[in-house]
Design brief:
By secondary structure, the protein is of the alpha+beta class. Helix content is 16%, strand content 31%. The strands form 4 sheets. It has a 6-stranded mixed sheet, covered by helices on one side. Strands 13, 15, 16, 19, 20 and 21 form a 6-stranded mixed sheet that branches. A 5-stranded mixed sheet has the order 5-6-7-8-9. The two termini are 31 Å apart.
């Protein structure tokens, strides 16, 4: 029902009208990682990559990988099960109150979006798509994958790219990027294309090189940390001078050593016979939609006029706090690049669309009921469902069981709706759980209950049945303390 892969179908998204926010503004911390992992599986401690020891924990993690291992047999298994990289990031972040909200995989390209649980009901209209730019535009070894979403009403897009390699193909890289920007579309009135989003992050192995300068000069600048002497010959910075679309994207200064190409398991630049010149192939850029780029024709359009008014009423600002490479990791010939940002925005809404809670005590000995109340109008669907999750769950698909809202509706009035859950679906051993309401139309969780206790089955205990043979939740459940 909830498979996340590149072939997922999309449903037309009605445009709900959020109420104006009441706060002047809030700050959110965003941690972006881009890394070409050179077909290797995760190894070692990823604490430094995710800054897990930082006193400031991010609200959002966005992780873009390139060259994830994708031989046919492995790729098929990764579609059915989580690939090793997704699995390790989820296992690290879930105990810290993050869940994987969305992901998309196109052959070796992987994009993961994690959010703190508290923000999940305010992340809506989640869509993902991809564009192949490999051999003749049909092969998925190069291209872009993106995730589009509304974050407290602000339309954001995250685009992870792997562009054409080799020194001489700078123009082709720009052409590929422009093709990705032009062809990717979303079923969303406010942001049908990437350029329509309020804020776009573009990152990945963009493969731009340092041209003209000789190897000796490049390595001398790296050794002396005079990186600025190389900037004038960085192909991306050079192309920005003549390509209007690139000029709309900002990037922090390249005050870190080039991230490509290293001998494996070392900090030594390519010592093979090819001796490839070091380069900043791995980049993170962003584009904040500017009112100044609005044309007269657009101003006459009522949709765009409404958009301009919305930008005024709900400002969004971005600040980059860190832009660096991480030299600690050497399993790939690329070093990962990290970008940390602060988003300052005024929320367009501050209450979830649905409030839900369990009714009475829950156990596998008796059928249960869920109570939910719509707090604002939203586009409900026959495909909406309520999932039961253990505390510390990893992703939207990591439910114990679910119930179709419309099919299992028992009673309702204007304020409270009652939904039935069969005792056969409730974990025998019990544990700390939460309920989540998933909106099929909004493609997101729009309400989360407070944690509650599911009691052990007295019948199972009396009959001496082994819990692990009865129900899939008979593993140790995460402590409720994690969510306090």
């Amino acid at each position: 029902m909830m498979e996340e892969n590149e072939e997922q179908s999309e449903v037309q998204q009605p445009d709900p009208s959020p109420k104006k926010g009441t706060s002047d503004g809030d700050s959110f911390r965003l941690h972006i990682v881009t890394w070409n992992v050179a077909t290797v599986d995760p190894a070692g401690d990823l604490t430094s990559l995710l800054h897990l020891n930082s006193p400031k924990s991010p609200d959002l993690y966005v992780i873009g990988l390139q060259e994830v291992y994708s031989r046919p047999l492995r790729f098929v298994s990764d579609i059915v099960f989580d690939d090793p990289w997704s699995h390790v990031f989820m296992s690290i972040l879930a105990p810290r109150k993050y869940i994987k909200v969305s992901s998309i995989r196109m052959q070796g390209l992987l994009l993961l979006f994690f959010s703190k649980l508290e923000h999940v009901p305010f992340i809506r209209d989640i869509q993902a798509t991809y564009t192949r730019t490999g051999i003749f535009g049909y092969w998925g070894n190069k291209g872009g994958v993106s995730i589009h979403l509304s974050f407290y009403g602000h339309m954001l897009c995250f685009l992870n790219c792997h562009l054409a390699a080799h020194m001489k193909y700078a123009t082709e890289r720009v052409d590929e990027f422009e093709r990705i920007m032009d062809t990717q579309t979303f079923e969303c009135k406010k942001a049908p294309k990437i350029v329509d989003h309020r804020l776009v992050f573009w990152f990945g192995d963009l493969n731009f090189r340092i041209q003209d300068h000789g190897m000796h000069f490049v390595r001398s600048c790296i050794n002396n940390q005079t990186y600025n002497l190389l900037w004038s010959k960085d192909q991306l910075l050079m192309m920005k001078k003549k390509e209007q679309l690139l000029q709309e994207f900002d990037e922090g200064p390249l005050d870190f050593q080039p991230t490509y190409k290293f001998d494996l398991n070392s900090d030594t630049y390519d010592s093979s016979g090819k001796k490839r010149k070091p380069a900043w192939t791995d980049r993170i850029l962003w584009r904040l939609r500017s009112k100044a780029t609005t044309t007269d024709e657009q101003e006459e359009n009522t949709v765009d006029a409404k958009q301009l008014e919305e930008d005024e009423d709900y400002p969004l600002k971005i600040r980059q706090d860190l832009y660096t490479s991480n030299m600690e990791y050497s399993i790939s010939d690329h070093k990962p690049v990290i970008g940390i940002f602060t988003l300052e925005l005024r929320k367009m809404y501050e209450t979830p669309l649905v409030r839900l809670q369990p009714e009475g005590d829950w156990s596998a000995d008796i059928d249960a009921m869920v109570l939910y109340s719509p707090l604002q109008p939203f586009p409900s669907s026959m495909w909406d469902w309520i999932g039961l999750y253990k505390v510390g769950f990893t992703s939207i698909t990591d439910y114990i069981t679910y119930t179709w809202v419309k099919d299992d509706e028992v009673a309702f009035n204007e304020e409270i709706i009652q939904v039935y859950v069969s005792k056969e679906e409730i974990p025998v051993r019990g544990g700390e759980c939460v309920l989540c309401y998933y909106s099929s139309t909004l493609r997101s969780i729009i309400g989360i209950s407070e944690p509650f206790k599911v009691h052990e089955s007295k019948v199972a205990i009396e009959e001496g049945l082994l819990p692990e043979k009865i129900n899939g939740l008979d593993k140790t459940v995460e402590s409720e303390e994690l969510w306090k």
